[in-house]
Design brief:
The protein is α/β, with parallel strands linked by helices. It has helices at about 10-15, 35-40, 50-55, 65-75, 160-170, 170-185, 210-225, 255-270, 280-300, 340-350, 355-375, 390, 395-405, 425-440, 455-460, 470-475, 485-500, 510-520, 535-545, and strands at about 20-25, 30-35, 50, 80-90, 95-105, 115-120, 150-160, 195-200, 200-205, 225-230, 235, 240-245, 275-280, 310-315, 325-330, 380-385, 415-420, 445-450, 465-470, 500-505, 525. The radius of gyration is 29 Å and the shape is globular. It starts with 7 loop residues before the first helix and ends with a helix. Bound molecules: ligand C2E and magnesium ion (2 copies). One magnesium ion (MG) binds next to β18.
Length: about 550
């Protein structure tokens, strides 16, 4: 072991402060030593690391990586004398903290670098109070002992805060956060602690309180903040959700408390928006399942997408009854979980970023299939689903174009469906991309039209070819008492005609509905009445029938 590491000086510096982390790198062996405080706080594999640049790079916030790399490159090339920059680094609990990183290179007689040493100082750890709201920051949580005190903790989140900011602007967003935090502080008991947890999330630690007391507190806060009056006289409606955890019975450490609070809040937001949900066995089970799903999905992606499969569901021409195309729908079976529905596993893929890789796999399979079927069954319109998150990936366009080239598919027969699982943040950019894809021949469909945030508004911005009318308007169309559905579908199809869009009606479950929408001149129909989504072999059987 190099003696640059084994000296009392390193030990002395290393234990100087909890907020300062020391590192020394032997440039010849590329082995470095990190102070124990750094290992614990950032969750490093050990005090000695090989190829620390790569290991540490993975801890740096992606938005700050360039700042760091540019600075380090400058130091090693000799352009800069000292390494000195600030960036966000990920710690052991997965959060990012600001650090100031300083260091310098020691060179040998020939000018070759031999040692790189320096220190990092946590600079946000110094702020006890949040600069915007004046509330305590999460730093304060280090001082609470959840094992020996009892009470309830509440994590309160403002519903749709991003939407509020995009509608009203950042200043209004800040004003709301300030006003909201004032209400929280004034309403809680003096011994309670109110912290700003993250952007629009607040943590209330109610010592020596029972669940009823915090539920009453939550309800009172809802009442007081359901309409917030702005300085300029405008009024903004607010809805909040909260997760609750009792300590010490449900959590006796900071880490478990935070973890359970986050899960409870997420559960509330997804299932009981606008209310408070206390941590329960059901939530625990749900998150254990999610953990398994996450691991297994990751494994399958690594394992050449083993376990993933595309199913196909026909698009039928209402006049001829013939299959003219199909939607490709993703299916997945894991080693441990075999009954996960697309809605569930696709959300996990989206939440953890793997949707990109899987999405490209789907794209490739669908396009390859379109080309392969053409020789046997003629030109079929094959669609596949893409979420907004996938579309905004920089390489999406290029991959779609190279994929049709690779398999010799006709882009005119490829329909890309934009699923509406999330709000479109930059419609102009998306519109430009749709425009470019359409110039290349691809067809674009708006999926589940009529359900999510801004379907109508999206039409104003986005150049598309197909509108897919959502199940919920269709399924009960033929049943008595559903005149409103009929009027909606009739109007939507009329709108499609006038604006020059093709239409696909989803959720056609029986012949009566097929007749109704056929008479309304829908372009294509899709639903269990014709076929459920089926595997490739079974879909080919349908195509064989279709030829007759
Ligand atoms: P979607 O794109 O709207 O797909 C149509 C869904 O409706 C499919 O559910 C299909 O099985 C179901 N369906 C079809 N006909 C009927 C019917 O007559 N009645 C009823 N009740 N349902 C019908 P599935 O396969 O469970 O997919 C759910 C959603 O998952 C899809 O909704 C789509 O948003 C998403 N999805 C599926 N595959 C992919 C994919 O490869 N990538 C992405 N990003 N999302 C996908
Ligand atoms: Mg779809
Ligand atoms: Mg759909």
């Amino acid at each position: 072991m190099s003696d640059v590491f084994n000296n009392e000086l390193f030990e002395a510096f290393a234990s100087a402060s909890d907020n300062v982390y020391i590192y020394v790198c032997d440039m010849k062996t590329d082995i470095s030593r990190w102070s124990k405080a750094a290992v614990d706080y950032f969750g490093l594999a050990g005090e000695y690391l090989e190829d620390a640049a790569t290991v540490w790079g993975q801890h740096i916030h992606p938005d700050d990586l360039n700042v760091y790399t540019d600075d380090i490159t400058g130091v090693f090339s000799g352009k800069k004398k000292y390494h000195d920059c600030q960036y966000r680094a990920r710690n052991a609990s997965g959060g990012y903290v600001w650090v100031e990183c300083k260091g310098s290179v020691i060179r040998d007689a020939e000018g070759n670098p031999i040692i790189f040493a320096g220190l990092m100082t946590r600079i946000d750890g110094q702020s006890k109070y949040d600069s915007l709201t004046g509330l305590l920051t999460t730093q304060e949580m280090h001082y609470f002992d959840f094992a020996s005190q009892s009470g309830a903790a509440l994590l309160i989140g403002i519903d749709g805060f991003r939407k509020i900011v995009s509608n009203y602007g950042y200043n209004t967003g800040d004003e709301i956060l300030i006003k909201f935090s004032r209400e929280l502080s004034s309403l809680g008991k003096p011994e309670w602690k109110v912290l700003r947890f993250s952007g629009d999330e607040f943590l209330v630690i109610a010592f020596a309180s029972n669940p009823q007391e915090v539920t009453d507190f939550y309800e009172e806060i809802c009442r007081r903040t359901d309409i917030v009056s702005m300085e300029d006289g405008r009024k903004v409606g607010l809805s909040i959700s909260a997760g609750g955890v009792l300590f010490p019975q449900d959590a006796d450490t900071r880490e478990t408390l935070i973890n359970k609070l986050e899960h409870s809040l997420e559960y509330a937001k997804n299932n009981q928006r606008g209310s408070i949900v206390f941590f329960s066995e059901e939530i625990a089970g749900k998150y254990e399942r999610e953990l398994v799903l996450r691991e297994d999905l990751k494994q399958c992606v690594k394992n050449d997408f083993k376990g993933f499969e595309l199913f196909f569901q026909p698009f039928v021409n209402p006049d001829t009854g013939k299959i003219e195309g199909c939607e490709s729908l993703l299916r997945w079976k894991g080693e441990r979980i075999k009954d996960s529905y697309p809605m569930e596993f696709i959300k996990v893929l989206e939440d953890y970023g793997e949707i990109h890789e899987v999405g490209y796999w789907v794209m490739e399979q669908a396009i390859r299939q379109q080309a392969a079927w053409r020789d046997i069954y003629g030109e079929l319109q094959v669609s596949f689903n893409v979420s907004y998150q996938q579309f905004i990936d920089d390489t999406f366009e290029e991959k779609a174009i190279s994929c049709v080239k690779k398999y010799g598919a006709n882009p005119e027969s490829i329909i890309i469906e934009l699923t509406e699982s999330c709000q479109v943040e930059d419609p102009k950019e998306l519109a430009a991309m749709f425009g470019r894809l359409r110039e290349r021949g691809f067809k674009i469909a708006l999926d589940d039209f009529g359900t999510a945030y801004a379907s109508m508004e999206m039409l104003k911005w986005l150049p598309v070819d197909y509108i897919k009318v959502e199940h919920s308007f269709i399924r009960e169309l033929a049943q008595p008492g559903h005149d409103v559905d009929y009027v909606i579908v009739d109007s939507l199809l009329e709108m499609c005609k006038r604006l020059g869009y093709y239409s696909i009606i989803e959720g056609v479950e029986d012949g009566k509905v097929a007749d109704i929408v056929g008479a309304l001149k829908a372009t294509l129909l899709q639903g269990y009445h014709y076929s459920r989504p089926v595997c490739r072999k079974d879909f080919e059987k349908l195509l064989d029938e279709n030829k007759k």
